[in-house]
Design brief:
about 150 residues, 4 strands, Rossmann fold, binds 4-nitrophenyl phosphate, alpha/beta
């Protein structure tokens, strides 16, 4: 199973989701992989935002090695599941889908936690430190459920 995490810039929310799921796949010795991308290429090549890295480190997780890249149409071929953080990401990604099969790969990540609610992971970029911690708590819970429901065969 190959999973892609997508947000706008690929420097705050999706690299954290990537780092959390990557670590949980490793701990649980699962046959799965994860990557992340942004719908915008504005921050391509950059490391995650220092505030997101600090929040991750406070929870013993390093995302320092990740680098931003832009989502591409070919990601639909390469990934089985594509998690987006908000409705805007959903619109931008599904617009590039060639067919229903590709479109059906795209899911709002918090619908794993609260099915059908279409709740967004709020963009923390323009806010304070608490926003980054809130994002961590949401994505930590969502990635736990992804491990249990989608990546474990029992
Ligand atoms: P992200 O946050 O989508 O969670 O990576 C953002 C990062 C950068 C910008 C917006 C959101 N920006 O406008 O530069």
């Amino acid at each position: 199973m190959k999973v892609l995490m997508v947000c706008l810039g690929n420097i705050c929310r999706s690299p954290l989701a990537d780092g959390l799921l990557r670590e949980k796949i490793r701990i649980n010795k699962l046959d799965a992989s994860v990557d992340s991308a942004g719908t915008s290429g504005h921050h391509a090549g950059e490391a995650p935002d220092p505030r997101m890295r600090t929040t991750a480190k406070a929870h013993d997780l390093s995302i320092d090695d990740l680098r931003a890249r832009q989502f591409s149409r070919t990601d639909f071929d390469d990934f089985d599941l594509i998690y987006v953080m908000d409705e805007s990401n959903y619109t931008n990604v599904t617009q590039l889908a060639k067919n229903e099969h590709e479109k059906n790969k795209v899911k709002l990540i918090l619908n794993e936690l609260t099915p059908g609610m279409n709740t967004a992971v709020p963009d923390p970029y323009y806010g304070g430190d608490q926003g980054f911690e809130d994002v961590f708590q949401m994505l930590d819970k969502a990635t736990d459920i992804i491990i249990k429901k989608r990546l474990t065969n029992d």
